[in-house]
């Protein structure tokens, strides 16, 4: 589910914190990872990134979504969140030097297969934003989802949007993963 960010200043601060957090984790020794995941999908949560790496190996849909994101000037930060009214959300948190920064919050308490299905759903939202070059702030994000999505009220969280493509991407990832042994 995609929600516009309520405060641009808060989003900018969050993007800076996430950039710094990623830089710090990038300097720490770790086992080699796929270079693509490090450049497009980022997180300071190593456990989450490990699950994402497994998903990228096992799901052609996740790899395809990652490829589409790689072709856009967008960085997607993945964060674990247990305080969501929905299981996941994607937000535009900032822009700069021709880049757009997105934050995908995921409820990492979900079973691994469900979490990766949710990731596919949210990465589809990220692709929708990434491929709409005119989306640079909250008003243009809302305009995009008014064109391509369905508006939903999400309790205290306010306005949220959903798209058929995101729902289908999540289902496709789930179908791919269910055929695999974990």
Description of the molecule:
The structure is a single chain. The chain is α/β, with parallel strands linked by helices and 182 residues long. The chain has one domain (8-178). 52% of the residues lie in helices and 19% in strands. The protein contains seven helices and six strands; from the N terminus they run H-H-E-H-H-E-E-E-H-H-E-E-H. The strands form two sheets. The protein has a four-stranded mixed β-sheet, with helices on both faces. Strands 5-6 form a two-stranded antiparallel sheet. Helix 3 packs across helix 4 (60-70), helix 4 (60-70) packs parallel to helix 5 and helix 5 (112-130) runs antiparallel to helix 7. The longest helix is centred in the N-terminal third of the chain and has 20 residues, at 8-27. The protein is globular and about 40 Å long.
Radius of gyration (Å):
15 Å
Outline type: globular
Q: Report the strand count.
A: 6
Number of helices: 7
Low-pLDDT stretches: 5-26, 32-38
